[in-house]
Specification:
2 copies of one chain form a homodimer. With 355 residues, the first copy, chain A, is an alpha/beta fold. Chain A folds into 3 domains: 68 residues, 434 Repressor (Amino-terminal Domain), CATH 1.10.260.40; 130 residues, Rossmann fold, CATH 3.40.50.2300; 131 residues, Rossmann fold. In chain A, α6 packs across α14 and α9 runs parallel beside α10. Chain A binds a DNA duplex (30 and 30 nucleotides) through α3 and α5.
DNA sequence: ACTATCTTTGTTATCGTCATCAATCGCGAG
DNA sequence: CTCGCGATTGATGACGATAACAAAGATAGT
């Protein structure tokens, strides 16, 4: 009876289940169904349950496109402008961002640019595509010219994972200082006293901040920072090789190397391997970011995990909110959202030799 | 003049330009505009030009959501079910897939699963989300149980980058055999005679096929394959370490190592580094796939480039076509699409020593 | 008991686009 | 000169969901 009617829709794939089908099945008006699926107030518990039962019975799925058509709330076009194809980073951002954007019925556009000249062209392409907002992952999150160009065109901007948030630009990030501090404390707690640090690209904001966190941790433990145990890097694997060679070939060898990202930590691992230095027995190596390379290399890296997927989700949520507010005529204040990092201990760290 | 009008709409963000605005601006009916923007036939050149001018003048953007609402053509929900978070692979797929899906107004859903039990749960989640089709990147592209489960639920399936296409399942891939053959030929052309090979995970289909390509290249050049120069790997960095150690510590050392993916090639690089073997002077190392790690390590890897972004784009296009055909009541034949690979020479390869 | 107020539910109109069908135009054949 | 036919173009309604409004029912206050 009703059973056969329930499945009728499902048998005819050319016609998806609509809100009206659910309404008919539940014997209510379609508006009530709409209210239930949106979780709107003013629906009696009994009614809500009845409708939800019909939703389940018919396996109803909201038609996000139709919803976006009527409720102009979020037909937003959100661009992600990236330059450094640090792939793992990007894919994680997208995993989170995509999930959220499909919920909000907004569109994600990807645009890649190379070099400074490329940025201008990429911005033009995004504008031509009619974006309402743009998310800038590192390192573009710190590029004032690009931010200004986008804002001049009336586009909402959000900086993702910047270390130095700007007052007038929304951002989603972790606290790089606290992250580096936590890692340093952990190394100290393991018994390390001779800790070297590999800095990142001086052009990028996390470089300085992470070093400050490291320095604070050392100071806190009453440990001196030796100049020859601070190596300059560029966040690349190659620069990590050079930095690690410098640190491991010096007069005195540290018992731990804290690289300010995973790529350079992986390079340090490779150099140690080349010097027949066992990790973690003779040397502890740790990184920052917890990108794919952290679990690719052997031993796997102890590192600071950034919840990148969650940050991508949050970024889309925030920027969609701002876009909506702006479309409604407002001038929303920049929103700064701080996410929690996690220190993850894997195989590359341990107590110093002889302890 | 018109300049100020062009920017007018940017000033009033609450009301996007619609097809009707364009129609009014051009002094035609909205249906004509619709035809022009879709590139439909039966529009006179003069009219087309006039409308296009108005589109440009108003910076009109199609409302994909509204389009999807009316023309049910492509409100398709397409899932990407991945297990191995080989991040660079995934992000490239998404870059391509996302671009295409926003053009087609279809939705991309990501679902990750771990292990065999996870596959079942992930399939359930995708079905609950009401997907019309699922794209399976490696290694899931070869999982018969998962494919069957999805198809049993009436979902269209497409295997991405499988090495052994199934007759009854659509796929987008490169020719792994020809890729390995091309690389082997190149090594031979460089003068190498003593070539070692690192196999991949025996569970994955590319493993066998790439080895066959290598074997064919060696046979073609009249070179023997020494058993102790064939190492077993698992496509992971760690397995590559073990394999490379075995190859480089043997009685006789090869002048080239062809690893069947980039992660293992990177590991071979690290081992060579540890043995003070200079790459590419004393040893050539090359990989397969051209994932992010290929350009992360130093020297950068010579490898076979898979056009993954293009493959993602193509995958979405094909599966959307099939879904549409199925919704129209048809029973479309599986479509097998072969993409072109490229051999990319970077710093890790060169002529053998003494040549 | 009766009205005022609030809560819950239904009705109507609307979003931007496209399918369908009707109307118009141009041009050559009879 | 008129008819007919194909090629263009326009008018109307539908898609699925929701906002705004209206109606009905519940509750309370006098």
């Amino acid at each position: 009876m009703t059973g056969s009617r329930e499945t009728r829709r499902a048998d005819d794939p050319s016609r998806p289940v609509t809100i009206h089908d659910v309404a008919r099945h539940a014997g209510v008006g379609s508006m009530t169904v709409s209210r239930v699926i949106r979780g709107a107030a003013n629906v009696s518990p009994a009614m809500r349950e009845r409708v939800e039962a019909s939703v389940r019975a018919l396996n109803y799925q909201v038609n996000v496109a139709a919803r976006a058509t009527r409720a102009r709330t979020a037909a937003a076009r959100i661009g992600i402008l990236y330059s450094n194809p640090s792939a793992s980073y990007l894919s994680e951002i997208m995993v989170g961002g995509l999930e959220q954007s499909s919920k909000l019925a907004s569109h994600l556009l990807l645009e890649r640019c190379e070099g400074l000249a490329g940025q201008q062209a990429a911005v033009k392409r995004l504008l031509a595509a009619g974006v309402d907002g743009v998310i800038l992952p590192p390192p573009l999150c710190d590029s004032r010219p690009t931010i200004n160009r986008l804002r001049a065109a009336g586009v909402t901007v959000l900086a993702l994972a910047t270390a130095r948030p700007m007052d007038d630009v929304s951002c989603v990030r972790i606290d790089d200082f606290q992250g580096a501090l936590a890692m340093t404390r952990r190394l100290v707690a393991l018994g390390h006293r001779d800790i070297a640090f590999i800095k990142g690209d001086p052009q990028h904001t996390p470089t300085e901040v992470r070093f400050e966190g490291f320095a604070a941790g050392m100071a806190e433990a009453g440990l001196a920072i030796r100049d020859d145990w601070i190596a300059e890097g560029l966040f690349t694997y190659r620069s990590g090789l050079a930095a690690a060679e410098q640190l491991l070939d010096g007069a005195r060898r540290p018992t731990a190397i804290f690289a300010s990202n995973d790529d350079m930590a992986a390079a340090a691992l490779a150099v140690a391997h080349g010097r027949q230095i066992a990790v973690p027995q003779d040397l502890t190596v740790c990184g920052f970011d917890d990108t794919a390379v952290a679990t690719t290399v052997w031993p796997e890296l102890t590192t600071i995990h950034q919840p990148i997927a969650a940050m991508g989700r949050m970024a889309v949520t925030l920027i969609a909110d701002q876009i909506r507010a702006e479309k409604a005529g407002g001038e929303p204040a920049p929103d700064h959202h701080l996410m929690k990092f996690t220190l993850i201990e894997r195989g590359s760290s341990g107590p110093p030799p002889g302890l």
